[in-house]
Design a protein that fits this description.
Mean pLDDT: 93
CATH architecture: 3-Layer(aba) Sandwich
Structural class: alpha/beta
Strand order of the largest sheet: 3-2-1-4
Radius of gyration: 15 Å
Order of helices and strands: EHEHEHEHHHH
Helix content: 25-40%
Number of strands: 4
CATH topology: Rossmann fold
Strand content: 5-15%
CATH superfamily: HUPs
Shape: globular
CATH class: Alpha Beta
Length: 156
């Protein structure tokens, strides 16, 4: 069974890694969203950087593809279907994506949310922007990618 795991992965954190660990043995397609957006504080990492975070974190057996935002909810599922190989179910914590894919007839692959308060991209980006400790919330591979980035510039 092919599972599409959609997310922005801004950055790839321990919650995302936990989901991939739970999906071990499944044929996973990782759809990296907002791949077309410019680097801004809400989206501080490029598609290539996010893909590198996943790879350096030891998750090398997955198909990883960029998913550009189109801001057109009625066309969203069809848009994603044109960008990725055929899939059987969807994993996402985005409520709108869950609704759209469910309405399109895709089963939602349920995985428990792990420590959502801390393993949350918005929270981690806030810590980064404030210069507070964040490295304990992401895999070592993510740290190695981000250590080569000027975070102050990304969050200014």
């Amino acid at each position: 069974m092919k599972v599409l795991y959609l997310g922005r992965f801004q950055p790839f954190h321990n919650g995302h890694a936990a989901v991939l660990d739970l999906l071990a043995g499944e044929d996973v397609i990782l759809g990296i969203g907002s791949a077309n957006l410019e680097v801004v504080s809400e989206n501080p990492f490029t598609y290539q950087e996010r893909m590198e975070m996943v790879l350096r974190s030891g998750y090398r057996t997955y198909i990883m593809l960029p998913i550009a935002d189109i801001n057109d909810y009625p066309r969203w599922v069809k848009h994603v279907e044109t960008l990725v190989p055929k899939f059987d179910s969807v994993v996402t914590n985005n409520p709108r994506d869950r609704e759209l894919f469910s309405n399109a007839g895709y089963p939602l692959h349920e995985v428990p949310v792990v420590n959502r308060d801390e393993f949350n991209g918005t929270y981690i980006r806030k810590l980064m922007s404030e210069g507070r400790p964040w490295k304990h919330l992401v895999p070592a591979g993510t740290v190695s990618v981000i250590d080569n980035i000027d975070l102050a510039e990304r969050f200014s």
